[in-house]
Design brief:
Order of helices and strands: EEEHEHEHEHHHEHEHH
Radius of gyration: 18 Å
Helix content: 25-40%
Structural class: alpha/beta
Distance between the termini: 23 Å
Shape: globular
Strand order of the largest sheet: 1-2-4-3-5-6-7-8
Number of strands: 8
Largest sheet: 8 strands, mixed
Number of helices: 9
Strand content: 15-25%
């Protein structure tokens, strides 16, 4: 039977980040899940045990799904008073979660799994803190990209209009980005996390604006664990094939494979940015391929 438990980890400023543990075997190989921007960990699971994390838990993996600060079941929720951003996620929140998991399970973290911007955050952590790679066997990233190179019309709507123009206006009004209220995200973003994300989405070097750490250079000098990149043919705006390939090219020299999912590739449906993780059909396709990738690199 699949079990679900919640853990809260206290940060230096008193905020608490949430981890959802989903498992049938508490001694199974550990998988860490990271969500993307304007969303939370629920992209990977439901309380009724649907989603990728319960699917892998049923196969014997010990899954830990993150909610970054202020998102999901983390405390407190994002408000105009929230001062933290993307760099805090990379240098404090994610490392704190990883340390909690290894201390609690007394096992290494064997696998990373991410959706969208979550892949950028995880590779940023590996760039800054190479020791987290020591026992990491493989990664699977769903629709992860850092920069947007495609020129599809929907990109100008979702990225240029919503993310670059409307979002800053909302932030000036509310003091944070209320993406959930306005229907273009399942969760909100702080003022700073949005600002940092905008800078990295542009075709700029992958460099920290605070201390100048060069993520791109750090990753170019070594290989990350074998990574399967899963793309969706109907993901026209946020992560087309060209965008994922650009992320692959700046993520080191290790083994990286990109698989696109849609009817023209003999899949059941034409997947998009979200249903690549939520469609009923995903269980037999993207979920199964994730499982096979992890087994291949066990």
């Amino acid at each position: 039977m699949i079990k679900q438990e919640s853990h809260l980890i206290t940060m230096a400023n008193g905020d608490k980040v949430h981890l959802r543990q989903i498992y049938t075997n508490a001694k199974g190989p550990v998988v860490f899940f990271m969500h993307g921007a304007v969303e939370n960990g629920r992209i990977f699971y439901t309380h009724s045990n649907k989603g990728l994390a319960p699917f892998l838990a049923e196969a014997g993996f010990n899954c830990f799904v993150a909610d970054l600060r202020g998102r999901g079941n983390s405390e407190p929720k994002i408000t105009s008073e929230s001062k933290t951003g993307q760099r805090d996620s990379i240098v404090e929140e994610i490392p704190a979660m990883l340390e909690f998991i290894t201390k609690t399970t007394k096992q290494p973290i064997s696998y990373f799994c991410a959706h969208s911007w979550g892949g950028v955050l995880l590779n940023s952590v590996l760039a800054r803190f190479p020791h987290y790679q020591n026992e990491l066997k493989a990664c699977v990233y769903f629709a992860s990209k850092r920069t947007i190179y495609n020129n599809h019309p929907s990109k100008y709507l979702q990225a240029n209009l919503v993310w670059y123009f409307i979002s800053p206006i909302l932030i000036r009004i509310y003091g944070y980005l209320p993406a959930k209220r306005f229907g273009f995200g399942s969760d909100d973003e702080t003022r700073l996390s949005h600002k940092e994300g905008v800078e990295w989405v542009k075709r700029n070097p992958w460099v920290c604006p605070f201390d100048g750490f060069d993520y791109g250079k750090a990753l170019s000098e070594r290989a990350l664990p074998p990574t399967l990149h899963i793309g969706a043919v109907n993901d026209k705006a946020l992560a087309q094939k060209i965008d994922i390939e650009a992320f692959i090219n700046e993520s080191g020299q290790g083994k990286q494979l990109l698989n696109m999912y849609g009817k023209k590739h003999n899949h059941l449906i034409d997947y998009d940015h979200i249903n690549i993780l939520t469609a009923t059909e995903a269980k037999a396709e993207t979920f199964q391929d994730t499982l096979e990738w992890f087994k291949q690199h066990s």
